[in-house]
């Protein structure tokens, strides 16, 4: 078996989801080759060559891959992927964008968002907002798979001794063009990789009140998340949404503040190790999954919590 | 400009599914079904483009058994002009769905195809991207803003790091995210009017597509249940438990 893992990175550093995807590759078993496609991203390739279990890194360094445009990256990955038994990428918005194109170009199915490897062709994946777990068997010769990073423990980033090989395949297109991006700047840890996440919901009432959460987050070194209702209402930006259709998190500690606990929200956080819920409604469904529940007004609790930590 | 919108019939988002005792699948008997919420957003966007004078026709398509006609009527009531049902006994897998949609695209020649970013049942998030690859169209996935200007569409996308904007030459594929719009409710007169709008049924043979399944569903289980923990009386007790019992602080 030979596995191609498509690395996620920002041309400077490896996204931790890549090391978790490598763990899924290791569980499948076989020779593991990593593809780093981007612009001026040789440092990323060097870093990944040291990751546990990587035999080789293919480096496609060209301006056409700078912004991971799906039209270009999918053609590159499909072209390389036809020589492998498995093609894997993290189920991030980047992976979700180009991988189904790869599957279609290879005329195979895609298995989305796997959470466990049963064997080289059988995987587990959540369906219906995580209310059921399907075991599926892929019969295609090439398995195209996206991996839910929170379900796997990262491989070691050091100690490996893979080689780096530059490849010069260039796939460009004249139909799509990158215009710009507005990326959230934050000193806090990345939501999906943080040890502690504290999220606010509609109960926060407005964006300014999120300061109450941010102060605690900064004390704990935590990331800040939100429910869809808080994002829709414009309290916080979209990249903070936790849930079925937002980000999946599984930190050591998840604190839900003013969040009712709709199934779509639970889908994104119920695999957290310890869950705390702060809500003034004792009937709120969030308490059914919380290890520790505090029935109280968040506007009284948060300042006190900040003080006592 | 003509817009094609693909809509899927799924379980209503308020319903929590149960797994069948024999673990063969989830139990969908007597469960409330609805238009996939992301598809509703897709229909709304197309109808708004028509109302703004940018589009002149909105065609909706759904693949599946006769029951999907119910969701097509819903889409017509929301403002689509006509509907196509591609009749299949079963739900095809995503790649087959994309191949069938490609067949519809070849017949209808739309300038834009709008799909939901994901179905809330399979949570697959792949059909739109597959359709784009098969038809060699550019794609703007997870859209929170769509702007059409002479022969192009600018799509603002919700990505993990924030927002990204791409410019695509038409025809293009767009998939919707939650913030793109807030779908309207169908009014009673529009629901009545929708009954008289054209709804055509075609077969996969008509489109020349063979449906295949290469992913076998072996088993469906309930996830590990979390049990409710304890209620704490105050902040002091909470901090104490987190430090000394859970040891996460
Ligand atoms: C297709 C689709 C996809 C979705 N995807 C997601 C998703 O990915 N993530 C997600 O989160 N949701 C998602 N949702 C939305 C989900 O169904 C809920 O609507 C949403 O999670 C509710 O957010 P909330 O808990 O903040 O708001 P509400 O349900 O309104 O709850 C607010 C809570 O705050 C409490 N509260 C209010 N004031 C106070 C106070 N002063 N002190 C303490 N508590 C207080 C209330 O008791 C209440 O329980 C999706 C929905 C659909 C249809
Ligand atoms: C629980 C479950 C288990 C399944 N197991 C298998 C399996 O083992 N093997 C297998 O091959 N298939 C299986 N399927 C079927 C398949 O995965 C999908 O249901 C469907 O065919 C393709 O849509 P999607 O959910 O992948 O779409 P997504 O890619 O998640 O949906 C994106 C968008 O595509 C469009 N779209 C999707 N489907 C249709 C449609 N029918 N008509 C019109 N537009 C559509 C909609 O705009 C939708 O918003 C299963 C489905 C479910 C619900």
Automatic annotation (TrEMBL), chain A:
UniProt xrefs under Gene3D superfamilies: HUPs (3.40.50.620), TPP-binding domain (3.40.50.1220)
Any Gene Ontology biological process: fatty acid beta-oxidation using acyl-CoA dehydrogenase
Record note on cofactor: Binds 1 FAD per dimer.
Chain residues that bind FAD: 202, 227-228, 241-245, 258-265, 279
UniProt keyword Transmembrane present: no
Span of domain Electron transfer flavoprotein alpha/beta-subunit N-terminal: 3-182
Protein's UniProt keywords contain Electron transport: yes
Keywords: Electron transport, FAD, Flavoprotein, Transport
Alphabetized InterPro entries for the sequence: DHS-like_NAD/FAD-binding_dom, ETF_a/b_N, ETF_a/FixB, ETF_alpha_N, ETF_asu_C, ETF_asu_C_CS, Rossmann-like_a/b/a_fold
Domain of life: Bacteria
Reported cofactor(s): FAD
Listed GO MF terms: electron transfer activity; flavin adenine dinucleotide binding
Pfam families with a match to the protein in the record: ETF, ETF_alpha
Quaternary organization: Heterodimer of an alpha and a beta subunit.
Assigned protein family: Belongs to the ETF alpha-subunit/FixB family.
Name the record gives this protein: Electron transfer flavoprotein subunit alpha
From TrEMBL, chain B:
Required cofactor(s): AMP
Keywords (A to Z) from UniProt: Electron transport, Transport
Cited SMART domains: ETF (SM00893)
Keyword Transport (UniProt): yes
Residue ranges of domain Electron transfer flavoprotein alpha/beta-subunit N-terminal in the record: 23-211
GO terms, molecular function: electron transfer activity
One GO process term, biological-process aspect: carboxylic acid catabolic process
Residue intervals passing through the bilayer: none
Record bears the keyword Amino-acid biosynthesis: no
Pfam annotation, one family: ETF
UniProt similarity note: Belongs to the ETF beta-subunit/FixA family.
Subunit structure: Heterodimer of an alpha and a beta subunit.
Function, as annotated: The electron transfer flavoprotein serves as a specific electron acceptor for other dehydrogenases. It transfers the electrons to the main respiratory chain via ETF-ubiquinone oxidoreductase (ETF dehydrogenase).
Record protein name field: Electron transfer flavoprotein subunit beta
Origin organism lineage: Bacteria, Pseudomonadati, Pseudomonadota, Gammaproteobacteria, Alteromonadales
């Amino acid at each position: 078996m030979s596995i191609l893992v498509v690395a996620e990175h920002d041309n400077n550093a490896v996204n931790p989801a890549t090391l978790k995807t490598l763990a899924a590759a290791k569980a499948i078993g076989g020779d593991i080759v990593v593809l780093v496609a981007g612009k001026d991203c040789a440092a990323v390739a060097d870093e990944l060559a040291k990751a546990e279990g990587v035999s080789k890194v293919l480096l496609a360094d060209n301006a056409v891959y700078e912004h991971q445009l799906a039209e270009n990256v999918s053609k590159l990955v499909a072209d390389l992927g036809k020589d492998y038994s498995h093609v894997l990428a993290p189920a991030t918005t980047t992976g979700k964008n180009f991988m189904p194109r790869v599957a279609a170009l290879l005329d195979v199915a895609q298995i989305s968002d796997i959470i466990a490897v049963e064997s080289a062709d059988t995987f587990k994946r959540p369906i219906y907002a995580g209310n059921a777990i399907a075991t599926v068997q892929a019969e295609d010769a090439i398995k195209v798979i996206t991996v839910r990073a929170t379900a796997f423990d990262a491989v070691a980033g050091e100690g490996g001794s893979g080689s780096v090989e530059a490849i010069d395949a260039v796939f460009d297109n004249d139909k799509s063009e990158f215009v710009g991006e507005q990326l959230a700047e934050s000193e806090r840890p990345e939501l999906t990789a943080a040890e502690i996440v504290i999220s606010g919901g509609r109960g926060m009432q407005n964006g300014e009140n999120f300061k109450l959460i941010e102060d605690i987050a900064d004390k704990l070194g935590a990331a800040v998340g939100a429910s869809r209702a808080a994002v829709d209402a414009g309290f916080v930006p979209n990249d903070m949404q936790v849930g079925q259709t937002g980000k999946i998190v599984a930190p050591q500690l998840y604190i839900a503040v003013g969040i009712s606990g709709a199934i779509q929200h639970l889908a994104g956080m119920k695999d957290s190790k310890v869950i705390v819920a702060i809500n003034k409604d004792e009937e709120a469904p969030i308490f059914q999954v919380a290890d520790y529940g505090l029935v109280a007004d968040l506007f009284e609790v948060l300042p006190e919590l900040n003080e006592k930590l | 400009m003509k817009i094609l919108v693909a809509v899927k019939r799924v379980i209503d988002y308020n319903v929590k599914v149960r797994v069948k005792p024999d673990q063969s699948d989830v139990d969908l008997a007597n469960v409330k079904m609805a238009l996939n919420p992301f598809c509703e957003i897709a229909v709304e966007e197309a109808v708004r483009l028509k109302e703004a004078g940018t589009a002149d026709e909105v065609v909706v398509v759904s693949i599946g058994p006769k029951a999907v006609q119910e969701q097509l009527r819903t889409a017509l009531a929301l403002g689509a002009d006509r509907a196509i049902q591609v009749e299949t006994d079963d739900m095809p897998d995503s790649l087959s769905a994309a191949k069938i949609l490609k067949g519809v695209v070849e017949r209808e020649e739309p300038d834009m195809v709008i799909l939901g970013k994901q179905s809330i049942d399979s949570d697959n998030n792949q059909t739109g991207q597959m359709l784009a690859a098969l038809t060699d169209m550019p794609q703007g996935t997870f859209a929170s803003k769509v702007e059409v200007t002479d022969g192009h569409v600018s799509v603002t996308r919700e990505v993990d790091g924030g927002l990204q904007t791409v410019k695509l030459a038409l025809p293009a594929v767009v998939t919707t995210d939650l913030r793109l719009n807030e779908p309207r409710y169908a009014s009673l007169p529009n629901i009545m009017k929708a009954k008289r709008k054209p709804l055509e049924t075609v077969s996969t043979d008509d489109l020349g597509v063979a449906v295949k399944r290469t992913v076998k569903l072996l088993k469906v289980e309930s996830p590990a249940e979390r049990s409710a923990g304890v209620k704490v009386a105050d902040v002091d007790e909470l901090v104490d438990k987190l430090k000394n019992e859970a040891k996460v602080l």
